[in-house]
Amino acid sequence: MEIYLVGGAVRDELLGYPVYDQDWVVVGATPEQMLARGFKPVGQDFPVFIHPESGEEYALARTERKSGKGYTGFQYHASPDVTLEEDLIRRDLTINAIAKSANGELIDPYNGQQDLQLKLLRHVSEAFVEDPLRVLRVARFAARYAHLGFRVADETIALMQQLSAGDELEHLTAERVWKELERALGEPSPMVFFDVLFQAGALEVLLPELLPLYQNGELDGIADKVTRGSNSCNRFSVLLTLATASLESPTALALIESLCERLRSPKLYREQALHCRQWYQALQRFDQISGEERLELIGGVDLLRREQRLSGLLACSEALSGGRSSPLNQALPALLVQLNAIAPKQLMAEGFKGKALGTEIARRQLQLCEQFSLEIDNG
Question: Collapsing DSSP states into helix, strand and coil, what is residue 161?
Fold first, then answer.
């Protein structure tokens, strides 16, 4: 039995990146031998085990054969006679097909170290086209390492285009597409993910709502604004706001709603994307719009009950304005405190009841919103 560290841990160590997770391949072992050593089995498709102490994954060396559509359409063969080289050749990129032995020796049969030096994301073998998920994974790796100068090899782009031209991408589940998209939005160069998908012909299949971004010739500015979103949720909101900029608000909101429904994106992402698209312009002009418009924005986002939405919305507005800092970061929370200080019980003690109570609350809210512009002007 021989155990090797494989995949991302080896790659990132060679790149000088911090290593958070380690995956291992076991050559020459049977499931029974793993169980005898206290490993706990997980996974149904192929033998993967959890180390009893470290909790890390140990997979038996295996080969695979395409047997159906999508990224789950494979039959796996794991046995003691499967070699390390046979296991590594099934991986997506050469830089992910490097193994490290217990004594620190690097096993690199497919020239992953050379591609690290060349800063190339290159497929290991022609079997790349059997797994549609690799289109998204390669695009995500491109977003992660673009700032280091990495690019996708031309021949790998060609295989990605081949995958996109068929029907394999249609067999990716919404959950898997969203997982890769969300992770890509957290990478140093998030727009590179979509750039690569566009180049590969996959964007029109998976995310056609984003195609307008590639029709106005202002990608540099778009990439800067999306990156300024600072986290995945904010970047998602900024991205969809920019992608629907040419549409009327009702149409844009319906498109965003449809996209989020199709991707099954988390509620937080969907709500913030909708709020950002609908209100970011009013938020950027908050010191110029009327008291009625300010109150409409506050009510539309439900900020009096959900003030936690404000920080994300302000971050998105700032990113969309090119990073200009806004005085609203301090002033608007203060206004919400004042609005929430309007106490119905106090007004009832003053004699307001029924419809008159609601009218008085609305009057005082509007008065505070109208006075807010004086605070900005005098600040």
Answer: helix
Between the alpha carbon of residue 37 and those of residues 4, 34, 54, the distances in Å are: 17, 5, 13
For residue 49, the cross-strand partners are: 41, 58
| Structure-token match 């199709």, residue found | 262
Q: How many helices (H) and strands (E) does the chain have?
A: 18, 11
- Whole domain around residue 89: which residue ranges? 1-118
Give how far Cα 255 sits from Cα of 69, 244, 315, 338, Å.
29, 8, 22, 36
Domain count, the chain: 1
Could you give the 3-state DSSP secondary structure of residue 23?
strand
- Give pLDDT tens digits for 215-272: 876 677 899 999 999 899 999 999 999 999 999 999 999 999 999 999 999 999 999 9
Q: Which helix (H) or strand (E) holds 50?
A: strand 48-50
In a domain, 15, yes or no: yes
Decide if 102 is inside a domain. yes
Please report, for the domain that includes residue 16, its CATH number.
3.30.460.10
The whole model's pTM is what? 0.89
